Amino acid sequence: MRKWIAAAIFALGIFCFINCKKNSTTTPPIEPGDATLTDVVLTQNLNFPWEILWGPDNMLWITERGGKISRVNPADGSVTPVITISEVVSNGEGGLLGMVLHPDFATTPEVFVAYNYNKAGVYTKKIVKFTYNGTTLINPVVLLDNIPASNIHNGTRLAISPDKKLFITSGDASVSSRAQDKTNPAGKIQRINLDGSIPADNPVAGSSLWTFGHRNPQGLVFVGDRLYSSEHGQSTDDEINIIQKNRNFGWPNIEGFCNTSSEQTFCAANNVAEPIFAWSPTIAPSGIDYYNNDAIPQWKNSLLLAVLKDSELLQLKLNAAGDKVEVVNTFYKGTYGRMRDVAISPQGVVYIITSNGGGADKIIKVSKE
Protein backbone atom coordinates (compact mmCIF):
# COMPACT_ATOMS: atom_id res chain seq x y z
CA MET A 1 0.00 0.00 0.00
CA ARG A 2 2.80 2.43 0.93
CA LYS A 3 4.52 1.75 -2.39
CA TRP A 4 1.25 2.38 -4.25
CA ILE A 5 0.68 5.68 -2.43
CA ALA A 6 4.28 6.77 -3.08
CA ALA A 7 3.92 5.94 -6.76
CA ALA A 8 0.66 7.87 -6.98
CA ILE A 9 2.21 10.93 -5.32
CA PHE A 10 5.19 10.74 -7.66
CA ALA A 11 2.91 10.53 -10.72
CA LEU A 12 0.85 13.44 -9.47
CA GLY A 13 4.02 15.46 -8.97
CA ILE A 14 5.15 14.79 -12.54
CA PHE A 15 1.72 15.78 -13.86
CA CYS A 16 1.77 18.99 -11.84
CA PHE A 17 5.34 19.83 -12.93
CA ILE A 18 4.49 19.45 -16.62
CA ASN A 19 1.27 21.44 -16.42
CA CYS A 20 2.60 24.10 -14.09
CA LYS A 21 5.49 24.64 -16.47
CA LYS A 22 3.07 24.84 -19.39
CA ASN A 23 0.84 27.36 -17.63
CA SER A 24 3.66 29.50 -16.22
CA THR A 25 4.05 31.38 -19.50
CA THR A 26 2.13 34.62 -19.98
CA THR A 27 1.53 33.77 -23.61
CA PRO A 28 -2.29 33.82 -23.81
CA PRO A 29 -4.24 30.74 -24.89
CA ILE A 30 -5.53 30.64 -28.45
CA GLU A 31 -9.12 31.83 -28.59
CA PRO A 32 -11.65 31.26 -31.40
CA GLY A 33 -10.78 33.60 -34.25
CA ASP A 34 -7.14 33.95 -33.19
CA ALA A 35 -4.34 33.08 -35.59
CA THR A 36 -1.94 30.30 -34.62
CA LEU A 37 1.57 31.75 -34.68
CA THR A 38 4.73 30.23 -36.06
CA ASP A 39 8.24 31.58 -35.46
CA VAL A 40 11.32 30.75 -37.54
CA VAL A 41 14.85 32.08 -37.86
CA LEU A 42 15.02 34.02 -41.14
CA THR A 43 18.64 35.24 -40.99
CA GLN A 44 21.63 34.45 -38.77
CA ASN A 45 25.21 35.60 -38.16
CA LEU A 46 24.42 39.27 -37.56
CA ASN A 47 26.42 41.30 -35.04
CA PHE A 48 24.50 43.66 -32.75
CA PRO A 49 21.83 44.83 -35.19
CA TRP A 50 20.02 47.92 -33.96
CA GLU A 51 17.38 48.87 -36.49
CA ILE A 52 15.05 46.77 -38.61
CA LEU A 53 12.40 48.28 -40.86
CA TRP A 54 10.24 47.30 -43.79
CA GLY A 55 11.29 49.18 -46.90
CA PRO A 56 9.00 50.33 -49.72
CA ASP A 57 11.14 48.10 -51.96
CA ASN A 58 9.64 45.13 -50.07
CA MET A 59 12.97 44.39 -48.43
CA LEU A 60 13.98 44.53 -44.78
CA TRP A 61 16.59 47.20 -44.02
CA ILE A 62 18.85 46.74 -41.01
CA THR A 63 21.71 48.51 -39.29
CA GLU A 64 24.46 46.86 -37.25
CA ARG A 65 26.29 48.86 -34.61
CA GLY A 66 29.69 48.36 -36.26
CA GLY A 67 28.60 50.56 -39.18
CA LYS A 68 26.97 48.18 -41.65
CA ILE A 69 23.65 48.76 -43.44
CA SER A 70 22.11 45.81 -45.31
CA ARG A 71 18.96 44.81 -47.15
CA VAL A 72 17.47 41.42 -46.29
CA ASN A 73 15.19 39.44 -48.57
CA PRO A 74 12.14 38.47 -46.47
CA ALA A 75 11.50 35.45 -48.69
CA ASP A 76 14.78 33.62 -48.12
CA GLY A 77 16.74 35.69 -45.57
CA SER A 78 19.61 36.47 -47.94
CA VAL A 79 21.58 39.57 -46.93
CA THR A 80 22.79 42.18 -49.42
CA PRO A 81 25.25 44.72 -47.97
CA VAL A 82 24.47 48.32 -48.87
CA ILE A 83 27.31 50.21 -47.18
CA THR A 84 29.68 50.12 -44.25
CA ILE A 85 30.13 53.65 -42.92
CA SER A 86 33.81 53.90 -42.05
CA GLU A 87 33.36 56.94 -39.82
CA VAL A 88 31.23 55.00 -37.31
CA VAL A 89 32.85 54.28 -33.94
CA SER A 90 31.12 51.63 -31.84
CA ASN A 91 31.91 52.10 -28.16
CA GLY A 92 29.82 50.00 -25.77
CA GLU A 93 26.21 50.44 -26.85
CA GLY A 94 27.13 53.16 -29.35
CA GLY A 95 27.82 53.00 -33.06
CA LEU A 96 25.48 52.95 -36.05
CA LEU A 97 22.01 53.09 -34.53
CA GLY A 98 18.69 54.44 -35.86
CA MET A 99 17.59 54.54 -39.49
CA VAL A 100 14.46 55.54 -41.40
CA LEU A 101 13.61 55.78 -45.09
CA HIS A 102 11.93 58.71 -46.81
CA PRO A 103 8.15 58.10 -46.99
CA ASP A 104 8.26 58.81 -50.76
CA PHE A 105 11.20 56.48 -51.28
CA ALA A 106 10.28 55.49 -54.84
CA THR A 107 10.72 59.08 -56.02
CA THR A 108 12.95 60.38 -53.21
CA PRO A 109 15.28 57.49 -52.27
CA GLU A 110 16.71 59.09 -49.15
CA VAL A 111 17.97 57.18 -46.11
CA PHE A 112 18.33 58.92 -42.75
CA VAL A 113 20.77 57.40 -40.24
CA ALA A 114 22.13 58.28 -36.82
CA TYR A 115 25.55 57.22 -35.65
CA ASN A 116 28.34 57.89 -33.18
CA TYR A 117 31.82 58.97 -34.24
CA ASN A 118 34.88 60.69 -32.83
CA LYS A 119 34.80 64.42 -33.46
CA ALA A 120 38.17 65.91 -32.56
CA GLY A 121 38.52 63.17 -29.96
CA VAL A 122 35.02 63.66 -28.48
CA TYR A 123 32.48 60.86 -28.84
CA THR A 124 29.56 62.49 -30.66
CA LYS A 125 26.34 61.62 -32.48
CA LYS A 126 25.12 63.04 -35.75
CA ILE A 127 22.21 62.58 -38.14
CA VAL A 128 23.13 62.08 -41.80
CA LYS A 129 20.96 61.84 -44.91
CA PHE A 130 22.14 59.63 -47.78
CA THR A 131 20.74 58.92 -51.25
CA TYR A 132 20.27 55.30 -52.30
CA ASN A 133 21.38 54.73 -55.91
CA GLY A 134 20.04 51.19 -56.16
CA THR A 135 23.26 49.64 -54.87
CA THR A 136 24.82 51.77 -52.15
CA LEU A 137 24.39 55.05 -50.27
CA ILE A 138 25.89 58.21 -51.73
CA ASN A 139 25.91 61.98 -51.20
CA PRO A 140 25.96 62.19 -47.38
CA VAL A 141 24.46 65.38 -45.97
CA VAL A 142 24.84 66.14 -42.25
CA LEU A 143 21.48 67.30 -40.90
CA LEU A 144 22.29 67.55 -37.20
CA ASP A 145 25.57 67.22 -35.29
CA ASN A 146 27.13 67.74 -31.87
CA ILE A 147 24.72 65.51 -29.95
CA PRO A 148 26.52 64.08 -26.88
CA ALA A 149 27.23 60.35 -27.13
CA SER A 150 28.46 57.72 -24.71
CA ASN A 151 28.97 53.99 -24.42
CA ILE A 152 25.51 53.94 -22.75
CA HIS A 153 22.24 55.90 -22.95
CA ASN A 154 22.37 57.01 -26.57
CA GLY A 155 18.66 56.46 -27.23
CA THR A 156 18.61 56.98 -31.01
CA ARG A 157 15.47 55.90 -32.78
CA LEU A 158 14.26 57.84 -35.80
CA ALA A 159 10.71 58.30 -37.09
CA ILE A 160 9.10 60.47 -39.75
CA SER A 161 5.70 61.99 -39.03
CA PRO A 162 2.77 62.13 -41.47
CA ASP A 163 3.65 65.81 -42.12
CA LYS A 164 7.23 64.74 -42.94
CA LYS A 165 9.19 65.91 -39.94
CA LEU A 166 12.10 63.82 -38.65
CA PHE A 167 11.98 62.90 -34.96
CA ILE A 168 15.15 61.72 -33.16
CA THR A 169 15.45 60.28 -29.66
CA SER A 170 18.60 60.99 -27.66
CA GLY A 171 19.46 59.59 -24.25
CA ASP A 172 21.27 61.54 -21.56
CA ALA A 173 24.60 59.99 -22.69
CA SER A 174 25.33 58.91 -19.08
CA VAL A 175 25.01 62.44 -17.60
CA SER A 176 21.52 62.68 -16.11
CA SER A 177 21.53 66.48 -15.59
CA ARG A 178 21.60 67.01 -19.36
CA ALA A 179 18.01 65.81 -19.65
CA GLN A 180 16.57 68.92 -17.94
CA ASP A 181 18.93 71.36 -19.70
CA LYS A 182 17.03 72.68 -22.72
CA THR A 183 20.23 73.97 -24.29
CA ASN A 184 21.79 70.49 -24.40
CA PRO A 185 20.53 68.06 -27.08
CA ALA A 186 21.09 64.97 -24.89
CA GLY A 187 18.06 63.56 -23.07
CA LYS A 188 15.70 64.97 -25.68
CA ILE A 189 13.45 64.11 -28.56
CA GLN A 190 14.35 66.43 -31.40
CA ARG A 191 12.33 67.45 -34.46
CA ILE A 192 13.73 68.78 -37.72
CA ASN A 193 12.68 69.13 -41.33
CA LEU A 194 13.90 66.49 -43.76
CA ASP A 195 16.48 68.94 -45.11
CA GLY A 196 17.88 69.55 -41.62
CA SER A 197 16.31 72.95 -41.09
CA ILE A 198 14.37 73.77 -37.91
CA PRO A 199 10.55 73.83 -38.20
CA ALA A 200 9.06 77.23 -37.44
CA ASP A 201 6.57 75.70 -34.98
CA ASN A 202 9.13 74.00 -32.73
CA PRO A 203 8.78 74.98 -29.04
CA VAL A 204 11.99 77.06 -28.98
CA ALA A 205 12.77 79.22 -31.99
CA GLY A 206 15.84 77.96 -33.83
CA SER A 207 16.10 74.83 -31.68
CA SER A 208 15.48 71.20 -32.63
CA LEU A 209 14.06 70.50 -29.15
CA TRP A 210 10.61 68.89 -29.10
CA THR A 211 10.49 67.22 -25.65
CA PHE A 212 12.97 66.86 -22.78
CA GLY A 213 13.57 64.96 -19.54
CA HIS A 214 14.43 61.64 -21.23
CA ARG A 215 16.86 59.06 -19.86
CA ASN A 216 17.27 56.54 -22.69
CA PRO A 217 14.37 56.28 -25.19
CA GLN A 218 15.03 53.39 -27.59
CA GLY A 219 11.63 52.94 -29.24
CA LEU A 220 9.65 55.33 -31.42
CA VAL A 221 6.61 54.83 -33.66
CA PHE A 222 3.88 56.97 -35.15
CA VAL A 223 0.29 55.74 -35.10
CA GLY A 224 -1.42 58.34 -37.22
CA ASP A 225 -0.15 61.61 -35.79
CA ARG A 226 0.32 60.17 -32.29
CA LEU A 227 3.91 59.36 -31.33
CA TYR A 228 4.69 56.54 -28.87
CA SER A 229 8.07 55.99 -27.27
CA SER A 230 9.59 53.31 -25.05
CA GLU A 231 12.18 54.38 -22.50
CA HIS A 232 14.63 52.72 -20.10
CA GLY A 233 14.31 53.59 -16.45
CA GLN A 234 17.18 53.31 -13.99
CA SER A 235 16.28 50.58 -11.49
CA THR A 236 12.52 51.19 -11.63
CA ASP A 237 9.95 52.51 -14.07
CA ASP A 238 10.69 51.56 -17.62
CA GLU A 239 8.08 53.52 -19.57
CA ILE A 240 5.75 53.73 -22.54
CA ASN A 241 5.08 57.39 -23.31
CA ILE A 242 2.92 59.40 -25.66
CA ILE A 243 5.17 62.19 -26.88
CA GLN A 244 3.60 65.64 -26.67
CA LYS A 245 5.09 68.91 -27.85
CA ASN A 246 7.24 70.77 -25.29
CA ARG A 247 6.41 68.40 -22.43
CA ASN A 248 8.90 67.47 -19.74
CA PHE A 249 9.18 63.70 -19.22
CA GLY A 250 10.76 64.13 -15.82
CA TRP A 251 14.17 62.46 -15.76
CA PRO A 252 16.14 62.58 -13.46
CA ASN A 253 13.66 64.20 -11.07
CA ILE A 254 10.79 61.84 -11.87
CA GLU A 255 10.82 58.08 -12.42
CA GLY A 256 7.61 56.77 -13.90
CA PHE A 257 4.45 58.29 -12.44
CA CYS A 258 4.18 61.36 -10.26
CA ASN A 259 3.40 59.28 -7.19
CA THR A 260 5.52 60.61 -4.34
CA SER A 261 5.03 63.96 -2.66
CA SER A 262 8.29 65.39 -4.03
CA GLU A 263 7.50 64.09 -7.52
CA GLN A 264 4.02 65.57 -7.41
CA THR A 265 5.45 68.96 -6.52
CA PHE A 266 7.98 68.79 -9.38
CA CYS A 267 5.39 67.52 -11.86
CA ALA A 268 2.94 70.31 -11.07
CA ALA A 269 5.61 72.97 -11.48
CA ASN A 270 7.31 71.57 -14.60
CA ASN A 271 4.58 70.40 -17.01
CA VAL A 272 5.58 66.75 -16.64
CA ALA A 273 3.89 64.14 -18.82
CA GLU A 274 3.35 60.80 -17.11
CA PRO A 275 3.78 57.48 -18.93
CA ILE A 276 0.77 55.45 -20.05
CA PHE A 277 2.48 52.32 -18.71
CA ALA A 278 5.52 51.51 -16.56
CA TRP A 279 7.42 48.46 -15.33
CA SER A 280 9.13 47.97 -11.96
CA PRO A 281 11.50 46.19 -11.75
CA THR A 282 12.86 47.15 -15.13
CA ILE A 283 12.66 44.95 -18.24
CA ALA A 284 14.85 47.05 -20.62
CA PRO A 285 12.39 47.98 -23.40
CA SER A 286 13.82 48.73 -26.82
CA GLY A 287 12.25 49.06 -30.29
CA ILE A 288 8.49 49.24 -30.85
CA ASP A 289 6.13 49.02 -33.79
CA TYR A 290 2.36 49.18 -34.16
CA TYR A 291 0.33 46.16 -35.25
CA ASN A 292 -3.12 46.61 -36.77
CA ASN A 293 -3.30 43.89 -39.42
CA ASP A 294 -6.00 41.25 -39.88
CA ALA A 295 -3.34 38.53 -40.35
CA ILE A 296 -2.94 38.15 -36.57
CA PRO A 297 -6.28 39.44 -35.27
CA GLN A 298 -5.41 39.02 -31.58
CA TRP A 299 -2.59 41.55 -32.03
CA LYS A 300 -4.68 44.27 -33.66
CA ASN A 301 -4.40 47.74 -32.10
CA SER A 302 -1.26 46.76 -30.19
CA LEU A 303 2.25 48.04 -29.73
CA LEU A 304 4.80 45.24 -30.17
CA LEU A 305 7.83 45.83 -27.95
CA ALA A 306 11.26 44.18 -28.17
CA VAL A 307 12.67 43.59 -24.68
CA LEU A 308 16.34 43.18 -23.80
CA LYS A 309 16.79 42.22 -20.15
CA ASP A 310 13.71 40.02 -20.01
CA SER A 311 14.45 38.57 -23.50
CA GLU A 312 10.91 38.63 -24.84
CA LEU A 313 8.41 40.19 -27.21
CA LEU A 314 5.57 42.02 -25.51
CA GLN A 315 2.17 42.74 -26.97
CA LEU A 316 0.75 45.93 -25.45
CA LYS A 317 -2.94 45.97 -26.33
CA LEU A 318 -4.21 49.55 -26.47
CA ASN A 319 -7.68 50.78 -25.60
CA ALA A 320 -9.88 52.21 -28.36
CA ALA A 321 -8.64 55.75 -27.68
CA GLY A 322 -5.01 54.62 -27.83
CA ASP A 323 -4.08 56.38 -24.59
CA LYS A 324 -3.92 53.36 -22.27
CA VAL A 325 -2.41 49.89 -22.27
CA GLU A 326 -5.21 47.44 -21.43
CA VAL A 327 -3.45 44.06 -21.68
CA VAL A 328 0.19 42.92 -21.75
CA ASN A 329 1.02 39.51 -23.23
CA THR A 330 4.46 37.89 -23.39
CA PHE A 331 5.85 35.86 -26.30
CA TYR A 332 9.12 33.92 -26.84
CA LYS A 333 10.49 34.70 -23.39
CA GLY A 334 14.03 33.32 -23.21
CA THR A 335 13.71 31.63 -26.61
CA TYR A 336 15.98 33.86 -28.70
CA GLY A 337 17.76 35.98 -26.09
CA ARG A 338 17.77 39.75 -26.00
CA MET A 339 15.43 41.44 -28.48
CA ARG A 340 16.30 44.86 -29.92
CA ASP A 341 13.74 45.96 -32.52
CA VAL A 342 10.58 45.00 -34.40
CA ALA A 343 9.30 45.59 -37.94
CA ILE A 344 5.97 44.69 -39.53
CA SER A 345 5.31 44.01 -43.21
CA PRO A 346 2.17 45.22 -45.02
CA GLN A 347 1.03 41.57 -44.97
CA GLY A 348 1.16 41.52 -41.16
CA VAL A 349 4.33 39.44 -40.79
CA VAL A 350 6.48 40.45 -37.80
CA TYR A 351 10.28 40.54 -37.87
CA ILE A 352 12.38 40.79 -34.70
CA ILE A 353 16.12 41.36 -34.39
CA THR A 354 18.10 40.04 -31.45
CA SER A 355 20.96 41.70 -29.57
CA ASN A 356 23.18 38.96 -28.16
CA GLY A 357 26.48 39.80 -29.88
CA GLY A 358 29.33 37.58 -30.96
CA GLY A 359 28.04 37.34 -34.51
CA ALA A 360 25.17 35.18 -33.25
CA ASP A 361 22.30 37.61 -33.77
CA LYS A 362 19.27 36.70 -35.82
CA ILE A 363 16.14 37.95 -37.53
CA ILE A 364 13.08 36.07 -36.27
CA LYS A 365 10.02 35.85 -38.50
CA VAL A 366 6.62 35.55 -36.82
CA SER A 367 3.53 34.85 -38.90
CA LYS A 368 0.28 32.94 -38.81
CA GLU A 369 0.53 29.26 -39.67
3D structure, described in words:
This protein has 369 residues and is mainly beta. It is 9% helix and 44% strand. It is built from two helices and 24 strands. It has helices at residues 2-23, 261-270, and strands at residues 37-46, 49-54, 60-64, 68-72, 79-84, 96-101, 110-119, 122-132, 137-148, 155-160, 165-170, 188-193, 209-212, 217-223, 226-231, 238-243, 277-279, 285-291, 302-307, 312-318, 325-331, 339-344, 350-354, 361-368. A four-stranded antiparallel β-sheet has the order 1-24-23-22, with no helix packed on it. A hairpin with a 3-residue loop joins strand 3 and strand 4.
Could you name the key traits of this structure?
369 residues; 44% strand; 4-stranded antiparallel beta sheet; Glc/Sorbosone_DH; 2 helices; PQQ-dependent sugar dehydrogenase; mainly beta; 6-blade_b-propeller_TolB-like; globular; Quinoprot_gluc/sorb_DH_b-prop
